[in-house]
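Bumping with the actual sequence this time:
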Amino acid sequence: MNRVRTNPEASASTTRWLEQLAISLALPDVAGFLQTQTLRVRGVECRFLAQPSNADALSILLDAGPLHWPRDADLLACVSARNFDNFLMGAPQFLRNPQSQRLVIAQNLVCTRTRPQAFAPILESLALQALAWQHKERP
């Protein structure tokens, strides 16, 4: 299998980890995934980014959909207030993309501490969180 490394900040172990994740998810185009480092899980866009400060770490960003102001402001404030605690516990963080006014769910991981096969169900649950935000009841 050809190895594609497009992100210069990604280490060889990170690229191998992404390749193993693609195989465990049974992606039809592993090379395409490694090139774009983006995939869709349950219709949710998931982007994998190498962290410049740690070559063996990745940030996974999931697009949870648009924010509707002002009605989502209180809910976003509640989930964002826990971001520091979530960061310390290794739980997902909820961020607002100021350019697109969309909610982003961010999860960090160290590839050397997480098996790709074990992360696949976690990725699925993150996608379900994003879907829950997209389909929440509108007041």
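The tokens above came from a reply further down the thread. The longest strand covers residues 54-66.
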